[in-house]
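Lab notebook, bench 4. The sequencing result for the construct came back, and we need a structural model before the next group meeting so we can plan mutations. Quick request posted to the team channel:

Model the 3D structure of this chain.
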Amino acid sequence: MAKYLPHTPKETKFKTLFRYFVQGVVILAPVAITAYILYTIFNWIDGFLRPIFITPGIGFVLIIAFIIFIGWLSSYFIMESMINFFDHWLERTPGIKLIYKSIKDFFQAFGGDKKKFTKAVLANVFNNDVWMVGFLTDDEMEKFNLGNDMVGVYVPQAYNFAGQLYILPKERVRPIENISPGDAMKYTVTGGVVES
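Done. Here's the predicted structure in token form:
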């Protein structure tokens, strides 16, 4: 919660109003931006079925229910076999496989069986006194002929969905053990302003 600024006797009326304005922005901006993002996501999902269903929200509920239904179906053996067949077909189709495999791997890195962002680390990339929060995504670089003493570290960017992959010697990477990987990600993408 924002800390309120104390009133000083020598403040002019303009300074007082400006102080209240800044205080109001600090309180309202996170709420307004969060509400706007949620509203945009809701409208975007709901818009897929808007030509069929005129009532706002019906499309959103149906699409979320469909996604849950597919997730539930995939837990059964017969459906799992069909999904695996479809998955195998997409991964072998020229042109499509590059797009499909990249997107699939990206989503699985966050929430699938092959989660990658589970080992938060401090990476010493540019200088002995400069450390970056990142995630160990590959603990051997033999495939690049760099040997077993090099590792892959993904460093996300603040307030962005982008990031950078660095290949570093193991001795320049330290595990983060005091906070969870989720808290480390939150700390990094917010530029260190969110307390873990």
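The radius of gyration is 24 Å.
Will bring this to the meeting.
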